[in-house]
Amino acid sequence: MKVLKAARDKISILLLVSAVTVALVMMVANHLMLDQISQEAVRQANRQQESSMMAFWEQMNRRGRNFHIENGKMILGDYYVLNDDNEIPDKIFCITGSRATIFMGDTRIATNVLRKDGSRAIGTRLTGPAYDAIFKEGIRYRGEADILGAPYFTAYDPIRDMNGKVIGALFVGVKQSEYLARYDRINLKIGLINWALAAVFVLCAVILGLDRKRSESEIKKQLHFQQLLLDTIPSPIFSKDARGRYNLCNKAFQTYVGLSREQLLGRSVFDLWDRELAQKYHDMDQEIMQTPGTQIYESQVRYADGSVRDVIFHKAAVRDEDGVPGGLVGVILDITERKTVERESRRIEAQKHHSRMIESLMIQLNHDLNTPLTPLFALMPLIRSKVTDPGVERMLEICQQCINQIQGLAGKALDLVRISASQPRLIPVSLYAAADSALTDMSASLAQRSVICCNAIDPELQVLGSAEQLTLLFRNLLSNAARYAAQNGKVVVSAVRKGEEVEVSVQDDGIGLNQEQLARVFDEFYKADAARHDLNTQGLGLAICRRIVANHGGKLWATSAGADSGTTMFFTLKQAGHQEPPAAADETVEASYQI
């Protein structure tokens, strides 16, 4: 009995030592895992700031590309004043969760960084290493920075004027305390779970030393808990013994293969799948057994439900203290959604690159065309003033028309590319003001043919749109009406509310259009003149109108009763602040173009 008791005591001591060892290993592993989580949190924060900075520049580029300081204000493009305009920083916060700031020099002029009293930190200055990087070295800054007494993960980019001089900076960042709070909670929970598991191991060891049956029962409970823990993990997890037979799996793995735990445990890949696929799995398992480390690779697998999924396999061999492999463990991570997002992101980026390339090409082409045209505009009137021969005068007039045509074509093509490159930001806009601005620009063209234009739009009517694009839309429609309206004729611009939409019309009393012309009038480079002799039009004005209306989510069409009966151009826009259901469409429209 004494020998038996001594043996039992020895077994209890060994079990206790083993349990303490396991607990220590778990604590070390937990410490390493928490350290990796912390490092990953910092990397995620830095990646978030890069993404936020890209979004910030994209929002700025939508409003213009030329930064300059005028009368103590930072201007973007021709007129967009950035001082005290917190709309863009607030939008970045809504999109990415990062705080954002626009600096003029080293002073904040627009921001959603808050002081302790909750007010925006307008007027505070940039200091520290970010200031040195931006204004002394002229480079961007990435890293940690102290902002108003709080540590942030930050990204700063310099703002340069057309001469390359640094005149300000863009900032995005997130408080370290806010960003790392969720990771601290995870660390606390994991630490608590780790201590709880360690306590369970020690308790089990003590119980095993006192009562073998009770200890066996506790071990079974623990194994049940571990299995339950594995079953709650959504990724498929499995393990195999040294002979390649499954000895553990979770519910996600059972769903993946379409077999129950009873059908899996104790069987090898050769018992479950066809010979070719099983041999492939077996060869990879043997490679893991023979090579230390973790095997990670991407693959496509067909789940039991028939769907093909993109996955990453993580596998590692289980070895004893002598390094002899006793089996392997594996985890399958489904990355189908991530791959889909990556492909979509690449597709969108390719489209953006193509748009930027086309826009850059058209800007350069417009510049290259205008360079030789400028002296021609100056010299042609001088040459014509010295010519008395009517024939030569007529030829010079044709040359002048050709010059005008080339310049107009370059400008219209550039307008079309810019409008097609990106979607405008739609805000409440006065439709009357947009039409009136275009009417002012076109007054000289209308007066040449003694055409009267009446703006019958309600001055109180507002639509969702871009004021710049809507003015260009009216300018092109009025230009078309002025060209084809009757001599001493009349053009009427009007708008009516139809539910949540506004239907706008531009009506002239000119030459009219036939059915074939109505069907093609919005095509690029189309001219109603079949011989295309009209050098005063480029055939792009109505195509630009079509693109603008498309950008606003509306539709554009034309109606005409025929030759010498005039033409009416219709388009629809969304009414600002209106929530009523849209009214039924007019069924008497003769020809329409759906955008």
List keywords for this structure.
17 helices, five-stranded antiparallel β-sheet, 595 residues, disordered N terminus, alpha+beta, 21 strands, disordered C terminus, six-stranded mixed β-sheet
Provide a descriptive summary of the structure in words.
A hairpin with an 8-residue loop joins strand 19 and strand 20 (568-574). 24% of the residues are buried. Helix 1 (2-63) runs antiparallel to helix 5, helix 12 (390-421) packs parallel to helix 17 (541-551) and helix 13 packs across helix 15 (467-484). The protein has 17 helices and 21 strands. Residues 1-6 and 579-595 have low confidence and may be disordered. By secondary structure, the protein is an alpha+beta fold. The strands form five sheets. It has a six-stranded mixed beta sheet. It is 50% helix and 22% strand. The protein starts with a helix and ends with a strand.
How would you briefly describe this protein structure?
The protein is an alpha+beta fold. It contains 17 helices and 21 strands. 50% of the residues lie in helices and 22% in strands.
Major sheet = 6 strands, mixed
Measured on Cα atoms, how large is the radius of gyration?
37 Å
Name the poorly predicted regions. 1-6, 579-595
Instruction: Find the count of extended strands (DSSP E, 2+ residues).
Output: 21
Strand order in the largest sheet = 15-17-18-20-19-21
pLDDT average, as an integer?
A: 80
Tell me the span between the first and last alpha carbons.
95 Å
Name the assembly state. single chain
Counting DSSP H or I runs of 4 or more residues, the number of helices is 17
Strand content: 15-25%
Global structural class: alpha+beta
Principal-axes geometry comes out as elongated
Query: Percent helix among the residues?
Result: 40-55%
